[in-house]
């Protein structure tokens, strides 16, 4: 065992939610407004001098803007830093010849500003671990109408003790879709195992199969989205019967749905990491889904159909990858994120890229080399090869074999665990 300092994010519920929700709403709306002001400023500078301002330049431009003082100065800096990073990411893709890449958009839902995440750095919060309270500073503009700070009472998981954490670096107020929650970003020292081996596995996250895995030795696995789809359908029906979406009953249903989804993500990430240990995997390569909600050509939200949208927008992509990463770190396994561009269109055996090769949702047939594969597994193998290309002989042996006949694991509600499809009874 070796010791390693890593970053951990611990999620906490807010126990006095009704008392602080209006204040947090005001901060979330303010963060969106500042983002939009910064977005307009970046666009104007780009149009005039073909230059994308960096974080320091953008902060200097907007430090005197009235919206900047809606938040604590460090919180405003973080909003503009995220915007600058998003613009630089877009410009990097454009410079590399990706003509379909779009710049970051404005944060609006119709005429309304959504609740953006607000980040508080060390000068912007005061943590009281004895009574599980945290004071979040507000900007000077909001202090005129509200108090100087928001006092949130929080509850972490039983196994998380923030008083034992040496350094809490940031506190984030995050809108979960139903209510506000707190994310504590900490530096902690952990004991990690030696790497299980030098093998690699690629993971493709998708709509029908939540995860498809392609291992370096050629075999593959699927993890269908069965339980989350059933939960979406069940809770949507129950919530539709509620007279008020903000009622106590609706709140309990949303909280239960959220807990079940979180349990699934924990169970799946733990299972995948255990499988990697068994298969001597030292590196997990996962597709980066940061732009999956946006249409490359139109710059708008993609329309995946009524059922697709239901499934897609209930995901927590970052949450799952975060859980997978820290569980993998404990076992000495590295996690790398790579672009998913064209991984669903390219043949993992001969590299030919053609839209028509994906003849059905779950079937990929290459008209060049004759490879027949499960489409999601083919994508996972392409993702894996971005970090560890296969030898030609292995690619030949893989075609029409394990890629087309993956093992399937389902979530068994009776046991609360993942098991081979033939063993699941629920």
UniProtKB/TrEMBL annotation:
<dbReference type="Pfam" id="PF01385">
    <property type="entry name" value="OrfB_IS605"/>
</dbReference>
<dbReference type="InterPro" id="IPR010095">
    <property type="entry name" value="Cas12f1-like_TNB"/>
</dbReference>
<dbReference type="GO" id="GO:0003677">
    <property type="term" value="F:DNA binding"/>
</dbReference>
<dbReference type="InterPro" id="IPR001959">
    <property type="entry name" value="Transposase"/>
</dbReference>
<dbReference type="GO" id="GO:0032196">
    <property type="term" value="P:transposition"/>
</dbReference>
<comment type="similarity">
    <text>In the N-terminal section; belongs to the transposase 2 family.</text>
</comment>
<keyword id="KW-0255">Endonuclease</keyword>
<protein>
    <submittedName>
        <fullName>RNA-guided endonuclease InsQ/TnpB family protein</fullName>
    </submittedName>
</protein>
<keyword id="KW-0378">Hydrolase</keyword>
<dbReference type="Pfam" id="PF07282">
    <property type="entry name" value="Cas12f1-like_TNB"/>
</dbReference>
<feature type="domain" description="Cas12f1-like TNB">
    <location>
        <begin position="317"/>
        <end position="383"/>
    </location>
</feature>
<feature type="domain" description="Probable transposase IS891/IS1136/IS1341">
    <location>
        <begin position="183"/>
        <end position="292"/>
    </location>
</feature>
<dbReference type="InterPro" id="IPR051399">
    <property type="entry name" value="RNA-guided_DNA_endo/Transpos"/>
</dbReference>
<feature type="region of interest" description="Disordered">
    <location>
        <begin position="94"/>
        <end position="114"/>
    </location>
</feature>
<comment type="similarity">
    <text>In the C-terminal section; belongs to the transposase 35 family.</text>
</comment>
<keyword id="KW-0233">DNA recombination</keyword>
<dbReference type="GO" id="GO:0004519">
    <property type="term" value="F:endonuclease activity"/>
</dbReference>
<keyword id="KW-0540">Nuclease</keyword>
<dbReference type="GO" id="GO:0006310">
    <property type="term" value="P:DNA recombination"/>
</dbReference>
<keyword id="KW-0815">Transposition</keyword>
<keyword id="KW-0238">DNA-binding</keyword>
């Amino acid at each position: 065992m070796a010791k390693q300092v890593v970053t951990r994010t611990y999620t906490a519920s807010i126990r006095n939610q009704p008392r602080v929700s209006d204040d947090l709403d005001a901060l979330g709306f303010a963060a969106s407004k500042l983002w939009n002001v910064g977005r307009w400023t970046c666009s104007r500078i780009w149009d005039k001098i073909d230059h994308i301002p960096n974080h320091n330049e953008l902060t200097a431009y907007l430090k005197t803007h009235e919206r900047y003082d809606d938040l604590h100065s460090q919180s405003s800096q973080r909003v503009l830093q995220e915007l600058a990073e998003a613009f630089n990411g877009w410009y990097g893709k454009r410079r590399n010849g990706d003509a379909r890449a779009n710049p970051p958009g404005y944060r609006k839902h119709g005429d309304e500003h959504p609740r953006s995440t607000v980040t508080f750095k060390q000068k912007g919060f005061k943590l009281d671990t004895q009574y599980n309270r945290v004071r979040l500073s507000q900007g000077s503009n909001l202090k005129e109408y509200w108090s100087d700070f928001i006092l949130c009472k929080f509850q972490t998981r039983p196994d998380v003790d923030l008083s034992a954490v040496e350094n809490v670096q940031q506190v984030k107020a995050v809108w979960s879709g139903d209510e506000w929650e707190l994310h504590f970003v900490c530096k902690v020292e952990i004991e990690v195992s030696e790497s299980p081996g030098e093998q690699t596995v690629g993971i493709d996250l998708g709509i029908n199969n939540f995860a498809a895995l392609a291992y370096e030795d050629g075999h593959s696995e699927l993890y269908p989205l069965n339980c989350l789809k059933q939960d979406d359908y069940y809770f949507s029906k129950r919530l539709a019967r509620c007279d008020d979406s903000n009622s106590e009953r609706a709140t309990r249903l949303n909280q239960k749905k959220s807990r079940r989804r979180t349990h699934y993500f924990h169970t799946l990430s733990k299972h995948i990491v255990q499988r990697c240990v068994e298969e001597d995997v030292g590196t997990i390569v996962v597709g980066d889904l940061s732009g999956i909600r946006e249409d490359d050509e139109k710059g708008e939200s993609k329309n995946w159909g009524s059922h697709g949208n239901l499934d897609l927008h209930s995901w927590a992509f970052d949450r799952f990858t975060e859980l997978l990463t820290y569980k993998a770190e404990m076992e000495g396994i590295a996690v790398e994120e790579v672009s998913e561009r064209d991984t669903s269109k390219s043949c993992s055996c001969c590299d030919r890229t053609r839209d028509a090769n994906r003849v059905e949702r779950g079937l990929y047939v290459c008209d060049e080399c004759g490879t027949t594969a499960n489409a999601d597994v083919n994508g996972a193998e392409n993702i894996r090869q971005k970090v560890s290309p296969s030898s030609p002989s292995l690619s030949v042996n893989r075609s029409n074999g394990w890629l087309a006949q993956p093992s399937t694991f389902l979530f068994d509600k009776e046991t609360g665990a993942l098991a081979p499809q033939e063993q699941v009874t629920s």
